[in-house]
# Entry
Amino acid sequence: MKRIELTERIKSFITASVGDTIDYEKIAAFEATAVTSLPLNKRGSVFDRGQITAETFIEAANLINTGTFVPLHTLHEQGYEIPVGRLFYGEHVKSNQGTDELRVLFFVDGTSPDLISRLDTGVIEEVSVGMQFKRLLCSTCNIDLMEDNESIWSQTCKNGHVMGMGSNHVKPDGVANFREMSLVSKGASNGAKVLGAQKRLLASAYYKDGSALAASLKDPEFMLFGSPTKLAEEDPMLIAELQAKLAKAEGDLTLTATAKTEAEGKVATLEAAKTEAEGKVAVLEAKLAAEAENNSGLAASITTWEAACTASEAAKTEAEGKVATLEAAKTEAEAKLLAAETELAPLKAAQTATLTQRPFKLPIGGVANLNATTTDSEKPKTVTTGSNAFRTPK
# Structure
């Protein structure tokens, strides 16, 4: 078990802290390293890689030992949870590695037997403190960042040193308010834990001033409560503001959850529509494939018809060429005919004029004895009938 023996010395510490004698049968006491000077693990905050000063541990121990009530909680539930115990003794010590530590003794009352059992078995081991500091010193130039609120939010001292960058870090110094210590699954100060018998110092039967045992080092999460001010008490207006912000955040969370559910419903509907559309696309693709196969013969026929059309166009072009040649020959012939008619026109005109002046006339009774087969010897010597105009001379 990790609980310590309630010796007379330990009981005297409890009596001095509580201010009265209590029923020691109903409590279980333990020793813990509350916090160390090893670099803090608080990424994103001004405390990241910070190292608490030894003076801070001395002041914290003095507060505990002079009767300041420092309650024990679980998971930093101060304000939401009744304390499960209290710190009753503290001391600043040096580890074997030379680091500073705040060692404390605390007890848990008998109303939390399950909590005591888990501390005894080591199921719950690490601790974390809630503490406000008097000063936040720059490790490089020792300027107090708390003198200017802007330096706190920008994490940069007035000389331009950025906390957590390079070798620069904050040095929390002095205790403005030691609010509580909590049992946690992971604390932020390396080595802050409940100690077993072999690592105890304050409750050791062989306790000697100035001696210290090395604490096992882990990488837990550290908790620092409240705004970095020098006020020792809570600001009621600040608490009301934080509660209002918490209520709004919870409302926003509810709205977000509702919107998420609605969005998930819409996504499910869209997924179903997508599946249906993909099915329709598959059916259409199958139909297109079948039609493409059926139309392969039609495509061949269209190709043949297009070839025939091409040949017909060629024949048409050739015929049009021949027609054009014939048209040209016709035009040439018509031109020659026109030229010939033009040339013969004067001759025709003269012939017409001659026939008009001396018309050819036949006798009414015709030419006597005109016979193509008659020889000259048979020709009559005289014309007995008809006109004398066609008489043959002797």
Summary: The radius of gyration is 65 Å. The chain is about 40% helix and 15% strand. The helical segments are 8-18, 54-65, 113-121, 149-154, 236-294, 296-357. Residues 8-234 form one domain.
